[in-house]
Amino acid sequence: MSTISIDVKKQFESQSFHLKTSLPAKGITAIFGRSGAGKTTLINLVSGLVEPDAGYIAINHEPLFDSQHNINVPIEKRKIGYVFQDARLFPHMTVERNLCYGVTKRDEDYFHEIIKLLAIEALLDRYPSHLSGGEKQRVAIGRALLSKPNILLMDEPLASLDTPRKRELMPFLEALSNQVDIPILYVTHSQNEILRLAQHLVVIDEGRVVESDIIERVWASKLMQSWQSFSDKSALFKGTVLEQNDTYGLTKVALTPEHYLWVQHTNADVGEHVRLRVRASDVSISLNRAEKTSIRNILPCVVKSMSLGGKGTPRQSVEVVLSLDEERELVATVTQWAIDDLSLKEGQKVYAQIKGVSVSQKDVALEPHL
């Protein structure tokens, strides 16, 4: 299996880093953590902008750095594209010249493929001073891709943009994940960006990788749950499209062989995978399966654990973890009154009633409420 292998140490004056993980060599891996934790340091070590003190970095078993064998591939030979927080375009060059800067041999077919992907055909004759922030970043991404890199590094590319420009750029970032066949390491502080873009998630804390796995597993971890506010507590699932109901405009998605959800129609084929997000505030608990109800999604499950809500949660709020099977879990947020009234206990069989599901699939991001 193609992978990016990282196991490096770096000592700065005030902090030491030991970053060790194995990442998929395709799709978007989000790098998440507090400021100063080591997110940008990680991608700078991969790029060669920062040299490790010891260890190794390899892409598909091809070493970029290996201290034991005295290997340190120069930056210009690593075939790495880098997109910074600010676009860093040359102000005296047109968009087209910026795009081709650093390209040794222009491939016309590939050039037109990239400008079409990023919808920048109409910008080629403009100068950076006549571009919006979102347009500048699209040009910066295009420039990085036109160098035909083996890996693309992105250091919070939306951080310097206002909300409208972020919304403008997000669909293009989503398209990258599906249409560009190279790994993308994406540094971000934004949980929304993680949910919209990433397939794999790395969490760094105090110079160490503390979580690294597919996003559904890391999102469910106690560490990641601690980052989520009361209103944002949620569970992620990778589902498989089973059926399209054109009469009601709904899509049936399987979570397990025994559990499925109806969600707002998505442009996905039967058998295709989609990501589902279920917020804890959209899940209620019943001891019996309701027969006459407007809620379409009712799942049998088992109470796994119950705990008082953390900091910032309403008084007497209880987080209930509900198991669908050995791997998949829902989270519900209910009152202590409800716990007492239903006499809920760990191991008890109950029904989760789900009134809202978010779906993110390829270029589609929907917020249905059923």
Mean pLDDT across the residues is: 90
**What structural class do the secondary elements suggest?**
alpha+beta
Q: Report how far the terminal alpha carbons are from each other.
A: 40 Å
Q: What is the general shape?
A: globular
> How many helix segments?
9
Residue stretches low in confidence (pLDDT < 50, at least 5 long) are 361-370
**Cα radius of gyration in angstroms:** 23 Å
> Largest beta sheet, briefly?
6 strands, mixed
Strand numbers in spatial order across the main sheet: 7-8-9-3-10-11
Strand residues, percent: 35-45%
Give me the count of strands. 22
Specify the helix fraction band.
Answer: 10-25%
Molecular structure report:
This protein has 370 residues and is of the alpha+beta class. It has helices at 39-47, 95-100, 108-117, 133-146, 163-179, 191-197, 215-219, 222-225, 336-342, and strands spanning 3-11, 16-24, 27-33, 54-59, 62-66, 71-72, 80-83, 151-155, 183-187, 200-205, 208-214, 234-245, 250-254, 260-264, 273-279, 283-286, 297-308, 317-323, 329-335, 349-354, 358-361, 364-366. The strands form four sheets. Strands 7-8-9-3-10-11 form a six-stranded mixed beta sheet, with helices on both faces. Strands 14-13-12-15-21-22 form a six-stranded antiparallel beta sheet. Strands 2-1-4-5-6 form a five-stranded antiparallel beta sheet, with helices on one face. Helix 3 packs antiparallel against helix 4 (133-146).
